[in-house]
Amino acid sequence: MIKVLHLIEQNYPENSGGVERYLYFLIKQAVANSPELNYQKIKFIQKSAKSLGIYQPYGISPQTIGYPFAVEQRLNKFIKINLIDVIHVHHPAPFGLNLLSKLAKKHPLILHWHDYFLLCQKTQLLNHQNQICSGPSVTKCTLCLQKKSSFIKKILVPFSVQWRIINAYKLMEASAAIVLPQSNLYQKVPKIFRAKCVVIPYQSEPQWELDLNLIKNQKLATNLKTNSWCVLGGPSSHKGIFDLIDELKIINFTGELNIFGEGWSQNINLPPFVKIRGRLLSKKQLEACSHWIIPSIWEETGPLVAIEAYKMGLNIWARKGSITSDMSDIYNISFFKHARDIDDKTKRKRTTKTIPTWKSILRSYEVLYTKFT
User: Fold this and answer.
1) pTM (global) more than 0.90
2) Same structural domain for residues 79 and 40?
3) pLDDT confidence of 149, banded at 50, 70, 90?
4) Quick check: is 212 in a domain?
5) Could you tell me if residue 210 is inside a domain?
6) What is d(CA 107, CA 85) in angstroms, rounded to the nearest whole number?
7) 97-104 and 151-174 helices cross at what angle (nearest 10)?
8) pLDDT above 70 (res 296)
9) How many domains does the chain have?
10) Cα separations in angstroms, 316 against 88, 295, 305, 312, 334
11) Rounded mean pLDDT, 164-173
């Protein structure tokens, strides 16, 4: 039996992020489809950074000098006891470039590009002006990381950036493979490592904690108005939600924008048309949603929310540049440059392109894992 260790920041539903949800459904589908596939010969084991005593903020130290020996020892002991054959890294940031490079020298290690952390310390590949960055360099990365640093740290930033870039390249060189969710991400990967890349598309399900019976007896207080606009995400600038709100104020939006996600304070100064709904717990909360908006400023590697919205039959709109045209064609996504472009009349034709299935995705992983054992 091939034992694959999936390293992730936190498990779902402890964290409801897209990557955590993707891995949750992947493992669930692997169990359900094991009789048809060879998953009786492949075992998925999941380990979170939190369970190893790794907590935020991670900072740049794990990417340069590494973690204390005790952290490495805990992970190495877990790998040894569980007889791990392949390591699949979904979140490099918490584990650190230094530690992962050491693991890659002892075990086949697969890097999954759910974001751009291998190129960007801030993971979204946006420059200091919050615009899409062409790639890492000491000068560009220093401008980003120096913004909130003290005087002494500002002097040291260029050296730590150079050290981080070197370690990132060492890790990609030592890795057995790099998994990309979309083929267009090839151009983001440094040329010398593109031969290691394997494209395995995303998939997800429009089910959340209540639908999955992960929590019970939870009352849903969210009552959306008919024809409500909805968005999922936290208050981070790369999500583009504040930009969307500003655009809606300009056009005197008379509807309701419902924000699902964590990290929002009810006391934050937002216009009356914005409603903070908290964590999304069930698809029932979206029954009155007419527009599912993805206002991201960064170039999404997915996003999984688009797949979930598509499976619910929602009208999906994404900011131009945030999603590739290939993905928009598959999942019937309309683009907007400004909130004024979003309307009720635009209806995209249902796609004729093949939508990736869980079985095809699992077969791709099967081929990948057996290649290194």
Assistant:
1) yes
2) yes
3) low
4) no
5) no
6) 7
7) 20
8) yes
9) 2
10) 31, 11, 10, 10, 6
11) 94
Phi, psi dihedral angles at 226 (to 5 degrees): -60, 140
Domain hosting 263: range is 228-341
Tokens 């208050």, residue? Answer: 235
Q: Per the structure block, which two tokens stand in for 154?
A: 């500002």
The position carrying tokens 């500003």 is 246
Q: Is 284 helix (H, G, I), strand (E, B) or coil?
A: helix
If one counts every other C-beta atom within 10 angstroms of the C-beta of residue 193, the result is: 16
Residue 14: inside a domain, yes or no? yes
Query: Considering the chain, what percentage of its residues have pLDDT values greater than 90?
Result: 59
Host H or E run for residue 56: none
Q: Which two tokens stand for residue 325?
A: 């045209």
Long-range contacts of 329-338 (CB under 8 A, 24+ apart): 329/353, 330/355, 331/306, 331/307, 331/355, 333/294, 333/306, 338/247
Give 55 or 291, the one with higher predicted confidence: 291
What's 237's domain CATH number?
Answer: 3.40.50.2000
Number of H helices, E strands in the chain: 11, 12
